[in-house]
Specification:
15 strands, alpha/beta, Rossmann fold, 16 helices, 4-stranded parallel β-sheet, 6-stranded mixed β-sheet
Length: 431
């Protein structure tokens, strides 16, 4: 298919070559998106299914398998670590907790670096290689930095990560360090402030920016939905529920659904439900009809969605509206209990992922989501992304901003026992 970069703003819609290094429209400042034109070859569903059996790296990837709907031709420059191929998992305990008859989790934590970012980063890194760039950069509170560092290393690129000093999960920071990224911890600044800083540096120093403002990241992330529909034999669910941070996934999912429907690959659009943390919920407030106001000091222990000024909110607004979706927010205790519930389903996830189940519980209780609805919730990251959170919750030590203690309602406290078989037996038998 032919591809161009197009300004998202409906009153502009300026067009640019696919190889131009820009992230916003030079004319109006609007976000950019990739537009594909052309017709899919016949029976692509069968072709994509057959590629699962192929041993070539590009076909083993759950992103590049769907390359006909990506702006890279035959994938000549593809930088891949066999991303995608993430499972759909049933979770009866989680469904009962939320008030649903059943629920399915699409678990992106099964990706190479443990999060959904890999789906987007394979395309972002590929575009950097195609453009002949040598250095790539991102601002990240965790998952993006881990993913970018890995794909930069795989693609022979130098990676630069900027993070808020002292405000990151070490499980995620460790990955960026391990994959060789040059990591700069910026003092006295949050995610949104650092993003403005790195955009200025990227333009001045010729560094390719790989945050979700990059439209090629969105192209990769939309394959999460392609694969989800393929796994469901192209039968759309009633709802797709996802956490809302910088809103890149919301933008990508909506774009994916629109493209699939336009090509006749699905018959209808599922509704999108975006769940934000209460302390970092500017999109929720905007959705409810207020003016868009960024949160100057976002607060949530779910660091992956601790973003007060989500760059993709205009795109996300269109996609939620297009699918007749909703936006909800949840509290820190609601996220913590939902996370423990997902763990008890034998699945596990990072804190931000659990916002989905917490939000579903609220939507069912409010009558927005039917008890018998067909729901797919996206878990964005692996359970070991933030192990400190898990330990502190289960031991009753988890505290939010302002030193507010979060109740450990579903805690699983470890027990200290003597080095005595008889004593341990009495404990195990409840004596």
């Amino acid at each position: 298919m032919l591809s161009e970069l197009v300004c998202f703003e409906p009153n502009c819609r300026a067009r640019f070559p696919i190889a131009e290094v820009i992230y916003n429209c030079p004319g109006c400042g609007g976000l950019l998106e990739v537009e594909l034109t052309g017709t899919l070859p016949a029976d692509m569903k069968s072709t994509w299914r057959q590629r699962r059996l192929c041993n070539t790296p590009i076909d083993q990837s759950g992103v590049w398998r769907y390359r006909e709907l990506l702006p890279f031709g035959d994938g000549e420059y593809a930088v891949t670590l066999r991303e995608g191929d993430t499972p759909l998992l049933k979770a009866p305990r989680a469904a009962a907790y939320a008030g649903l008859d059943q629920i399915t989790f699409k678990h992106q934590g099964y990706n190479p670096t443990g999060s959904f970012k890999d789906n987007g980063m394979t395309c972002g890194a590929t575009q950097a290689v195609r453009l002949g760039m040598r250095r790539v950069a991102c601002v990240s509170t965790g998952n993006t930095s881990a993913s970018m560092a890995a794909y930069a290393a795989a693609g022979g690129l130098d990676a630069i990560v900027l993070i808020p000093h002292g405000n990151i999960s070490y499980g995620k920071l460790a990955q960026a360090l391990e994959y060789g990224a040059r990591t700069l911890q910026v003092e006295g600044a949050n995610f949104d402030e650092i993003l403005a800083l790195v955009r200025m540096l990227a333009e001045k120093l010729g560094i390719y920016l790989l945050n979700s403002i990059n439209p090629f990241r969105i192209e990769g992330q939309k394959t999460i939905v392609f694969e989800m529909m393929d796994q469901r034999d192209w039968n759309p669910p009633d709802w797709i529920v996802l956490p809302g941070g910088n809103l890149g996934n919301t933008s990508a999912f909506g774009k994916a659904l629109r493209e699939l429907k336009a090509h006749g690959l699905i018959s209808r659009l599922p509704r999108l439900a975006v769940i934000q943390a209460e302390g970092a919920a500017p999109f929720h407030e905007y959705w409810r009809g207020g003016p868009y106001r960024k949160v100057a000091h976002p607060e949530t222990l779910a660091t992956a969605i601790k973003i007060g000024d989500p760059v993709s909110y205009p795109k996300a607004l269109r996609e939620v509206a297009e699918t007749q979706g909703v936006v909800e927010k949840v509290t820190e205790p609601e996220i913590a209990d939902a996370k423990a519930t997902i763990g008890r389903a034998g699945i596990g996830c990072e804190p931000a992922s659990a916002a989905t189940l917490a939000g579903i519980k609220k939507l069912v209780a409010a009558g927005v989501m039917r008890k018998d609805a067909d729901v797919v919730a996206v878990l964005t990251g692996h359970v070991l992304k933030d192990p400190d959170y898990i330990y502190h919750y289960h031991t009753g030590q988890l505290t939010a901003a302002g030193n507010i203690k979060i109740p450990s309602r579903l805690g699983n406290q470890p027990v200290v026992v003597p080095n005595d078989a008889a004593a341990i037996e009495r404990i195990l038998e409840g004596q």
